[in-house]
Amino acid sequence: MADLARRLSAEALGTQALLAAVVGSGIMGERLSGGNDAIALLANAVATGAALVVLITILSPVSGAHFNPAVTLAAALRREISWAMAGAYVLAQTAGAVGGVMMAHAMFELPIVEVSTRARDGVGQGISEMIATFGLVAGILGCARWRPAATPAIVGLYVTAGYWFTASTGFANPAVTLARSLTDTFTGIAPASVPLFVAAQIAGALAAVGVAGWLFGVSHKPD
Q: What's the CA gap between 3 and 47, in Å, rounded?
């Protein structure tokens, strides 16, 4: 039980810190950019990528540092964790993500919970999220197969790039998506846009597991 508590705490705290970085850097970037969205997005991307490198490095030995239901889904499909554990991870990640948004709002003296009005709709947004999540999960699986020690850097770099090469700014994370519907700031997403993003993210994760299993020669851990 103690090991389970540590693992779930690591997932919750890691995801909370990630969302605090995402939302907090978005607020700071927007305030300091003088209306230049490119500068705000750059600040948001760099802060998020850097935070991920740190969080994955220090928490991966405890829980695997998923911080993302899409990554947890891939791990369950590959039999790295049980489905029961995967469900517990997703609950911890979601709770942590919501807590991270609240933390960011508290730091910048905003209402603790808001409902976002930033619509992110359209086919291009869905395609972007599928591609962003596919690349993220495939990158993690590739690192697991060939260079596990490179995972923190690979994830941080890929997420930073995803802010810029996708039309959606690369959420690639269902828990992050849901939590960001609770902030009406630079990084927010309207609740009505959440289902499209989450569906695309799940599709991207499933595709990545299938492709990685063929490309890297391992579909799941041996029984």
A: 30
d(CA 118, CA 191) in angstroms, rounded, equals 9
**pLDDT for the residue numbered 222:** 45
The CA-atom distances, in angstroms, between 136 and each of 97, 111, 161 are: 18, 32, 11
Could you tell me the two tokens for 25? 């850097």
| Most distant CA pair in the chain, distance | 56
Which has more confidence, 220 or 208? 208
Contact by Cβ (8 Å): 213, 140: no
pTM of the predicted protein model: 0.95
CB atoms within 10 A of CB 117: 10
Q: Tell me the one-letter amino acid at 91.
A: L
Would you say 96 and 20 are in contact if contact means Cβ atoms under 8 Å apart?
no
Compute the average pLDDT of residues 69-82.
97
**What tokens were used for 194?**
């959440």
**Mean pLDDT confidence for 154-176:** 98
